Structures are given as structure tokens and as C-alpha cells.
């Protein structure tokens, strides 16, 4: 009996605990009318966060900050997967947030709209949203990432550097260090770019961020003509994130340079399966190997991809123009790239337009854009090769030789066919 009396208070406590749990636990009887806890974005489980946020917003559809967070998650998912349909979802989420906060718009939604505009290659739009965010909340440091990206793509490198400096001063972190690396590379300061990437890698928060940093390290090594070091960086990136498509393509490119063709083909196939943006590069390798039928299939996939991008609000006339100049209609390339030049005067567009003009037989005009690409910071072997071909068309063999030699010294593996053509041209004009 004594044991029973001792047990009764414990049993009562346990029973009371069960009752309280039933009443007050999430979803319990006395909490069913309370707002559910908002999902928290973890970079380790982006898909899980999206699912949780969607469930939360079905019950709390008027939470403007939650809509902005969901829009940001959609944008990140688009970046990681290459699935551009997430752009439309991101836009819908950001716009819903802005409608729910008309008097004082949610600043994360404003910044998100700027990031979305940049992702869709609407860099003037990115600039407008970034400036709107600056006016509303000048100490929200992510807005300076939007402004930096927009100015970089518009070719306003001094302005990009100014905005990036503000971001670094206010919030030095992975987002600012990786942008600094790109700007330093454009300026021809490879050592500074590597130092910035090393700092970014040290603070990477998850495997995808770590892979992104290492991929950029690999790109630096590749552009310096070192496929061994590039492949090592890409391999480390893939160890962290096996599905990182840019590293898959980078590793395949390096493997081909090292004579490992079977592995290169397998790597490109894997990259294209995850991100169709690499189909032209894969097609060029197939064409280089003499497999023209398979190459044409990849090029057909590229044209279909371009239509899908357009349907999701993405205008990529730079990629389309490059494709047309080398594999399609050079006159169409000139039209596309002139439009792109009106939108953004970057080093990439300058080189592409110059090459397209060369391909339609207008070397004098082409030379102006090729020289401009050099002045803007075109420390790129392919750009140097293009300029050499343009100089040859103008009847300037000495200048052409100088640019071909520079291309081969920068990166003797700069494309699948270009290095052999440059060496042959040097031999012909010796």
C-alpha cells in the first residue's frame, strides 16, 4: 500500500504532463488558434525550408516578411539547380510581400526584386531596385551586392568597386568576398582574387557555398592555363557538393585539356543534366571530336533552352549571340549583340560583338570593340585570340602574332580548337 501511495503522485504528474502536452503543444487543443511558428531558412536544407514556409504561409498568408524569405529561397534554389521556373515563383513571393506592406515595403522583398532582376539579366532593373532599397534602408548591406552585380554587368566597374567597398566595410562576408574576387580578376589581379576567395572559403556556411568558392578558385587556375590546379579545385568542390554543375563542367574541361577525353565526356553529360547552360560547351567538345550529329543535338537543346529562358523572363542575348556567331547565323549574332551592348557595356559583350562583326566581314568595326574589351580588363586568352584574328583580317600580321602569342601564354588550353588554330596561324605568318 505504501508503494501505491508513493506511486500515485508520480502517476498524477505524468498524467498532468500528458494533458498539458495535449493542450499546449504545437497543434494542441488550446493552441490551434495561435499562429504557427515560422519556418527558419537553413542552407543545409533549402528544399525542406521551402516546404515548411509554404505550409506556414497557407495558415498565415498575410506575413510579408515570410513571403520575402520564401522568395529569397526560391532564388537560391534557382541558382543551385539551374531551374529558371523558380524565377517566376520568386517574383510572385516578392510581389506578395510588397502588396502586404504598401506603406513601408518589406526591405528584403525590395532587395530580392533587385537580385531577381539581375538573375534575369535586367541589370538596369537591378540598379533601380537596389537604389530603392538604399533610399529606404541604407544600412541593409545585401542591397550593395545587388548594386555591385548590376554595375559589374553594365560595365561600370569603378561604380561597382565603390558599392562593393561599402558592402565590405559594412558586412565583410562570403557574398562580398566572392564579388571582390570577380572584380579583382577583371582588373587582372589574380593574387588578390585568390586571397578574397580564400577568405570566402573560410567562412562558407554550407557545402554549396564551399563548392561555389572552390569552383571560382578553379576558374582562376583555368584562366591562368593550369588545368592540374584547376582540376584539383573542381574536385574539391565536387567532394563538398557532388551535384555542383559549374564544377562538373570545369572538371570536364580540365580533363579534356589533360587528354582524359572519356572522363571529360562523362563530366559534361552530368553537368548538362543538372544545368543546360553548358550544352554549347559540350556540343563544341563533341564537334571537336568529330561527332557532329551529337553536337547538333546539343545545339538544338540550346535553342530550346533559350526559348524557355525567355518564357521565364530571362533575356540572354550574350549567350545567344555567341552561339550564333560560332555555330549559327553571324548576322543574327550582330543584331543580338548590338541590343545587348545598348543594355550593358561589359567586357564580355564588347568581345562578343567584336567577334560577331569579324564573322560577318567587318574587321574595322570589330577591331574597335576588341580593343575596348582589352581596355575594360579582358585578361582572357579567348579574347586575345579573337583580337589576333581580327588584326589578321585587317592586314596587320605583326599585331595578329602578338595577340595570338598572348592568348597562348595566358592559357594554352583556352578552347577546344582555338589553341591549335593560333599555333597554325603563328607558323603561317612566321
From TrEMBL:
Protein's UniProt keywords contain Ribosomal protein: no
> Any idea which UniProt keywords this protein has?
TPR repeat
Q: Can you name this protein?
A: Tetratricopeptide repeat protein
At which residues are the TPR repeats?
211-244
Tell me the superkingdom of the source: Bacteria
UniProt xrefs under SUPFAM superfamilies = TPR-like
Amino acid at each position: 500500500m505504501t508503494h501505491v501511495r508513493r506511486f500515485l503522485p508520480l502517476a498524477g504528474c505524468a498524467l498532468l504532463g500528458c494533458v498539458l502536452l495535449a493542450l499546449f503543444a504545437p497543434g494542441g487543443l488550446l493552441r490551434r488558434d495561435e499562429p504557427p511558428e515560422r519556418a527558419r531558412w537553413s542552407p543545409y536544407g533549402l528544399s525542406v525550408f521551402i516546404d515548411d514556409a509554404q505550409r506556414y504561409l497557407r495558415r498565415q498568408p498575410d506575413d510579408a516578411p515570410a513571403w520575402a524569405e520564401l522568395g529569397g529561397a526560391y532564388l537560391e534554389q534557382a541558382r543551385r539547380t539551374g531551374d529558371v521556373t523558380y524565377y517566376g515563383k520568386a517574383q510572385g513571393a516578392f510581389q506578395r510581400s510588397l502588396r502586404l506592406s504598401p506603406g513601408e515595403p518589406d526591405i528584403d522583398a525590395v532587395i530580392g526584386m533587385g537580385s531577381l532582376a539581375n538573375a534575369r539579366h535586367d541589370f538596369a532593373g537591378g540598379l533601380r531596385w537596389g537604389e530603392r532599397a538604399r533610399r529606404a534602408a541604407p544600412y541593409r548591406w545585401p542591397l550593395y551586392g545587388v548594386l555591385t552585380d548590376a554595375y559589374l554587368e553594365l560595365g561600370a566597374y569603378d561604380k561597382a568597386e565603390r558599392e562593393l567597398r561599402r558592402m565590405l566595410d559594412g558586412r565583410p562576408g562570403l557574398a562580398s568576398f566572392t564579388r571582390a574576387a570577380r572584380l579583382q580578376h577583371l582588373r587582372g589581379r589574380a593574387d588578390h582574387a585568390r586571397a578574397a576567395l580564400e577568405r570566402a572559403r573560410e567562412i562558407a556556411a554550407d557545402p554549396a557555398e564551399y563548392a561555389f568558392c572552390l569552383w571560382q578558385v578553379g576558374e582562376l587556375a583555368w584562366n591562368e592555363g593550369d588545368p592540374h590546379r584547376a582540376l584539383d579545385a573542381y574536385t574539391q568542390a565536387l567532394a563538398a557538393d557532388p551535384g555542383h554543375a559549374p564544377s562538373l563542367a570545369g572538371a570536364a574541361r580540365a580533363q579534356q585539356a589533360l587528354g582524359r577525353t572519356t572522363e571529360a565526356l562523362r563530366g559534361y553529360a552530368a553537368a548538362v543534366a543538372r544545368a543546360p547552360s553548358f550544352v554549347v560547351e559540350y556540343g563544341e567538345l563533341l564537334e571537336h571530336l568529330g561527332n557532329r550529329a551529337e553536337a547538333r543535338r546539343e545545339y538544338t537543346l540550346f535553342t530550346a533552352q533559350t526559348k524557355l529562358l525567355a518564357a521565364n523572363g530571362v533575356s540572354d542575348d550574350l549567350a545567344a549571340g555567341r552561339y550564333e556567331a560560332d555555330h549559327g547565323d553571324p548576322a543574327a549574332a550582330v543584331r543580338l549583340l548590338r541590343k545587348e551592348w545598348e543594355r550593358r557595356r561589359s567586357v564580355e559583350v564588347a568581345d562578343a560583338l567584336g567577334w560577331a562583326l569579324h564573322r560577318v566581314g567587318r574587321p574595322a568595326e570589330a577591331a574597335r570593340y576588341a580593343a575596348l574589351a582589352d581596355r575594360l580588363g579582358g585578361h582572357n586568352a579567348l579574347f586575345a585570340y579573337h583580337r589576333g584574328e581580327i588584326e589578321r583580317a585587317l592586314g596587320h600580321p605583326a599585331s595578329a602574332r602578338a595577340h595570338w602569342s598572348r592568348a597562348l601564354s595566358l592559357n594554352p588550353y583556352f578552347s577546344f580548337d582555338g589553341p591549335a588554330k593560333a599555333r597554325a596561324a603563328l607558323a603561317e605568318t612566321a
